[in-house]
Amino acid sequence: MLWAKNSHALFDGRLEPFLAYSVTHDDNVFRLSEKVDAATVLGTPSKSDTYSTTSAGLNLDVPFGRQRIQGSLSFNQNSYDQFTVLDFNERHARALWQWAAGDAFSGKVGYTSDRALASLTNILQGGIQLSTPNPLETKIAFVDAAYLLTPRWQLRGDVRRLDQTNGAPALQVNDMTNDGVGVTVSYVTPAKTQIGLGIQAQDGSLPNLQNVNGTLVDNSYKQTRVNLVADWTISGASHLSASAGQVERSFADLPERDFTTGIFRAAYQWKPTGKFTLVATAQRDIAGADEVNAGVNIGFVLDKGFALRPAFQMTEKINVSGILAYGDWQYLGDPGQVLGTVPPRNDKVRTAALAIAYEPMRALRLEMGLRHEARTSTDEFGDYTVDIVSLRARLAF
């Protein structure tokens, strides 16, 4: 959980180098089910571990005229006390150009590159949670532009590419390139409320065929979504953004997996005072490839759920925030389901988290986080519970 904070930077607030150090205790690192003998899977009866993360990086924010260049680069060294196989040096890079040409034409050009260990939460192999680390490389490039055709009508277009590669050989069948293009036409009121129609097409290419009991399956797909979209500032204290429509996915092989369903996403922000904010979200949608790493079960996830995210600025130096969330994940499109080798799977995840931040001086930030997560699953070994405690200190220059 992160929240907005003041920038403490060099060169007139444009460059911010930083150092950070955190200690985290996780009582179920590999998200093992209570039905699994940890000693058999991990070689030790303990499922918990404490690890430290040392971070260094910088943030860049350079406005010039009506343009703005933003970027960040960070390196994280993760060191585990017991499960040293998970020790890993992460890299995260961001670049964003926000541009404007006159009053009618504006947009963004961005690129992100991340190298980190993939989450072990959703990966099952042979009915047991996979304990092999998977270095995951994710690159996203995007361009979007908006043009006011008239003072009331806006045309927006975007192009996006996602490249994702897995380091673990067993998971390289998930390697993919996803190309997306979209266009939205909206009516804009004088109060900046917008309502419009959006169309998006995606082409997902998975070059590594999946072997399902001797049958080689191409998991590449095409996806189209049509949405009504709205953005409404209800009052000075509340704002609503929402979309609703239909999504359709068709696969290169085994058309029995093809899927069409209604979807929606909604986010409501309420800020009754300058100190308190509540964001409520709800969705029923196919999760993006960069949101879910589905492991050896190739397909997609229909994500139904909601979340509440309150934040309270107790004092000038102390901020408290939290999360209460529920997710219902239905795994679909797996060729093993069509060929009868994999049963249908459905997970329900409940999450509660609390974070407290203390900023005793402008350059120093201290944070503590608590998180509890519990999952039930139709998969025999897909359930787990986990409690996580973390402490972090960040020093900016």
Query: Kindly state the mean pLDDT as a whole number?
Result: 91
- Residues in β-strands, percent: over 45%
* Poorly predicted runs: 1-7
- Overall shape: it is globular
Radius of gyration: 22 Å
| Total DSSP E strands | 22
Structural class: mainly beta
Major pleated sheet: 18 strands, antiparallel, barrel
How many alpha or pi helices? 2
Query: Cα distance, first to last residue?
Result: 22 Å
What proportion of the residues is helical, as a percent range? under 10%
Order of helices and strands: EHEEEEEEEEEEEEEEEEEEHEEE
Short description:
This protein is mainly beta. The protein is globular.
Explain the overall architecture.
- With 397 residues, the protein is an all-beta fold.
- It contains two helices and 22 strands.
- The protein has helices at residues 38-42, 335-338, and strands at residues 15-26, 49-64, 67-80, 88-101, 105-117, 124-125, 128-129, 135-148, 153-166, 176-188, 194-205, 210-212, 215-217, 221-235, 238-251, 259-270, 276-286, 300-313, 318-332, 345-361, 364-377, 384-396.
- The strands form three sheets. The protein has an 18-stranded antiparallel beta barrel. A two-stranded antiparallel ribbon has the order 6-7. Strands 12-13 form a two-stranded antiparallel sheet.
- Strand 3 (67-80) and strand 4 form a beta hairpin.
- The longest helix is centred in the first third of the chain and has 5 residues, at 38-42.
- It is globular.
- The two termini are 22 Å apart.
